[in-house]
Amino acid sequence: MKKIAKTIAVAATAVIVGAGSATATEGPNVGSVGVGPQVINMWTDYSEPFSGAGLSLRWWATNEFGVEGNVYYGTTDENIPSGPEFSSDTILGTIKLMYAPVVNDNSRFYVGLEGGLGSSTWEADGVEEDSDDYYLVRPLIGTEFNFSDFEEVGFNFEVGYGFTGEDDGDDSEYEFDLTGVSIGLGAHYYF
Questions:
Q1: What is the reported pTM?
Q2: Residue 82, CB half-sphere, CA atoms under 13 Å: how many?
Q3: pLDDT of 90-128, one tens digit each?
Q4: Any residues with CB less than 8 A from the CB of 29 and at least 6 apart, and which?
Q5: Cα–Cα distance between 76 and 116 in angstroms, integer?
Q6: pLDDT tens-digit profile of 58-100?
Q7: Closest CA to 114 of 175, 72, 63
């Protein structure tokens, strides 16, 4: 929990420091709602990274401030040597707050904080073992780019570090943990 608090404090400081450096350039799609796919990959202590694909809504309220909502779904299959074969189904809903200290005609550089709740069901050798509810907190940096001829389409790339935890009261030997480095990719069509 101390790690999460420290990370949030660092992200908030970056936003406050960056607030004075925002440009006067009008960025693309201010006030428009963007809809499109978003993918997140998280590298954890597991041998296989978690990948979730989903639907995303993004809105830049002002030139510098935006919000995004995502629903991700992912599956994993892992064969442990001399052990069971694990598989999981995971669903995750998140809200992302973004601040863009650098805004250009066709791009934005932003910092953000994403938080959400999810659920994962684990199976070992085809038999359900556990179901976990968890939370995710992910500070991130990213960029969104629009081609000058197609300003209504925005492509984004993000790098962050996700912190997850659960508090469901079970004593399962298999704990759900997506804590680690993450990369997000997406595209939004703005209306």
A1: 0.79
A2: 0
A3: 899 999 999 999 999 999 999 999 999 999 887 877 777
A4: 60, 146, 151, 152, 154, 190
A5: 20
A6: 999 999 999 999 999 998 777 666 667 777 888 999 999 999 9
A7: 72
